[in-house]
Amino acid sequence: MNTELYETITSHRHRALRVTTLPDLSAEYADKKLSPRARMSDRFVRLMDAEVPHILPGQKIVFMRTVGRPYDCFTEDEWAEIKSKHFIHELGYISNICPDHSFLLKTGLLAAKDFADEYGRADIDALLRLIERYRDLALAEGRDDVARVLEKVPAHPAETFREALQFFRIVHFALWAEGNYHNTVGRFDKWMWPYLKADLDAGRITKDEAYELLLDFFLSFNIDSDLYNGIQQGDNGQSMMLGGDDGEGGYLWNDLTEMCLRASAELKLIDPKINLRVNKKTPLSIYEEGTKLTKVGLGFPQYSNDDTVIPALVKLGYAPEDAADYTVAACWEFIIPGKGMEIANIGALSYPLAVDRAFRSSLLTSDTFEDFMSSVEREIRAQAEEIMAKVHDLWFVPSPFLDLLYGGRDISKGNKYNNFGIHGTGISCAADSLAAIQKYVYDENSVAKEDYLAAVDADFAGYDELLHRLRYESPKVGCGSEEADRLLVRLTEAFHRALDGRTNERGGIWRAGTGSAMFYLWHAAEIGASPDGRRKNEPFAANYSPSLFAKIDDPVGIVKSFTAPDLRKVCNGGPLTLEFDSGIFSEEENCSKVAALVRYFVQSGGHQLQLNAVNRDALLDAQKHPEKYERLIVRIWGWSAYFVELDRGFQDHVIRRQEYRM
Prior knowledge:
The protein is α/β, with parallel strands linked by helices. The chain has 2 domains: about 5-265, no CATH class; about 345-655, Anaerobic Ribonucleotide-triphosphate Reductase Large Chain (Alpha-Beta Barrel). Strand 5 (about 325-330) and strand 6 (about 335) form a beta hairpin. The mean pLDDT is about 95.
């Protein structure tokens, strides 16, 4: 590894080279009444022309941002006008999709001019001018190797492994500069492997030389990430998918796959975020390789089960060959490279809110638990209707450079797949609440309905005995309660039915999911206490996972509970998330047990799994002495971050999560 380059990037010394900012151009654009497409191109051209080339010590895969994050293309008044007429998702710029990167690698930017519009051609010319300045710098610094690569790509198609890596780096740089964000990498060991294989077969490169290039390439994901949009530092969507169905009936696993896992473990950085596709036939040895990476404490790989995901996508209307080629968006949502303009995180449904509404409106009048459960299911359906009704006249800022990766098509207006996904938040809180209501109100008659309502309204103040019983003695998902598991199933079924068969305005479908994103904090803050003993302002569990105060000794029980539903029906994405005490990985036997647990999850029909190795004492000390833990990494929901860079709320949630032992 290039130690000097590694230390330059991880110490952030390179950020001192960012000395330029673009002025706020929005007022100028408004005065000139430029179209959105013209604005995006003009800002991109100005940004490229303002960039100053720098090659870091020994760097092989070059390009870094020297201009800070640019201003918006629209004034506040213009955004207000746009939002009065349209539904705007997040920032209004395209995000969370995955191009077919191999397309442009095989085309080259000069040939792309043939299908680009005037704005795309202007973008290409501006980027090529910057590349020429980089090439001149390389020659001046005696870096003939860099200059030779830039003489070829990305103007022309890539032919070698190094050319392909450099080509991707420049395109990735340009997408972020344009204003697109959460630009995912896709199935890297599929579309990049032919370049490496050709080099190895021809004797142009050794495996050791290829690995050194890959390390340099992985470092490049961490150069400009502080400029990338996200809820927190680290939430940047640089997700890389490895393994999976090879499209010919086999399993994709090659030298590049293994190199990626090894490089990630060696560098110990939060980007790129590794995802691993597996199935029932995946040998234990591959899970063991994945567990080696988990042991490092990066919060990945995240596993996706082809045996569940591919049939689920086919049932949702995806062509079988497209479903087999799936990857993930920024966090976990299943999307199709090159063919999707899916908005897989367009909204989020709160299961505890549905229970809360039913609890307050229907508990006193429900004679049986089935009556009450019907009210909950109606509230889930109503909430889903509320979410879907908000999405109309959808509009995105067009992206002339991004369009080049789609053959010049205006991707902001849609693609082959235009499906919308809705997260499902707080499912363990909701299932545990229902289990408690069923047991104490309807089965035992040990808690009067009026008292239960009063206790929840009082945030359990003065109800200490009931609070203790609800938190620590009631049936809970993941704790071996068949009834709680049955209710978990019913909740997922209700969510599925609420969206099944519904289409959106772009002709796509609505997909139910098990992820939470940041809503596990936001939705929890929107309601008071819950009937499971969760008190006001206490968060839900992140993603698809047990309650924060469920007493769980055996992670196998969690797998049994969370694979009980038919997860093909809620397959927008969202992993079962398990936290392991990092100390267990010191014993090789436990590493094998963790690998076997992952295989058990897959064989049990799970869809997505995320494992984290954490040390609670270290996290607590990091809050007191952040300067000692600058490189401490934790998994948040679908992304990893440096713990000390997180807001306190995210830090506290990580500390409160369960730590399991084998």
